[in-house]
Amino acid sequence: MFSTVPFLRRVGIATALSCAAVLQFSGCTTTTASKSSTSTTSETRQSLNSAADATLSRLYQASPQSKELVARARGVLVFPDVLSGSFIVGAEHGNGVLRVGGTEAGYYSTTAGSIGFQAGAQSKAMVLLFMTDESLSKFRKSSGWTVGADATVAVVNVGANGRIDTDTAQKPIVGFVMNNGGLMAGVSLEGTKISKLAP
Question: Is the predicted pLDDT of residue 177 greater than 90, yes or no?
């Protein structure tokens, strides 16, 4: 007979890990923030910025044309490590940094859920490019932003020669998704929620 205990235990662990990650990143505690927590938050963000640089470097290697697209973007949101763990009900979580004009303009978290058999844990990186001032402004003003509900993200299709589909590249918001094998094709970001983390 199928037991729900292991399943519930896995869901509980995944939820606890996600909450812990958010709390650690934002430096939130139930007591007054100390110098130690401020230092930890600063170090975590520094590490995130380094990981974002590495993610962009990987993107440029996979598709050299993407570098030109990133340079034209009004804002670049990089999630270097979005971890998904699932068994029947899945959950994704990751932290990222928004860069405007080449400098850090805010830190964000992303979450998403799915239903279906996807046993095991996987990691991917996401890069969202806001190609217009309007799309960037709407994103930055939102208190909670969801792909599909608040805006459409055109996930880029890259050909065998690394060339980007020109039609997709002209959309207001363009997305890249990568795993260890490189750029992922046929990926949907529908339902992905992005929220700003505390300063």
Answer: yes
Is the pLDDT higher at 122 or at 152? 152
- DSSP of the chain, one letter per residue? ---SHHHHHHHHHHHHHHHHHHHHHHT--SS---HHHHHHHHHHHHHHHHHHHHHHHHHHHH-THHHHHHHH-SEEEEEEEEEEEEEEEEEEEEEEEEEETTEEEEEEEEEEEEEEEEEEEEEEEEEEEE-SHHHHHHHHH-SSEEBTTTB--EEPPB-TTSPBPHHHHTSSEEEEEEETTEE-SS---TT-EEEEPP-
In the predicted structure, residue 88 carries a pLDDT above the cut 80: no
Cβ–Cβ < 8 Å for 145, 107 = no
Q: Which of 11-20, 83-92, 94-103, 180-189 has the highest mean pLDDT?
A: 94-103
Whether the Cβ atoms of residue 92 and residue 137 lie closer than 8 Å to each other: no
Query: Looking at residue 43, what is its pLDDT?
Result: 86
The pLDDT tens digits of the residues spanning 66-83 come to 999 999 999 999 999 998
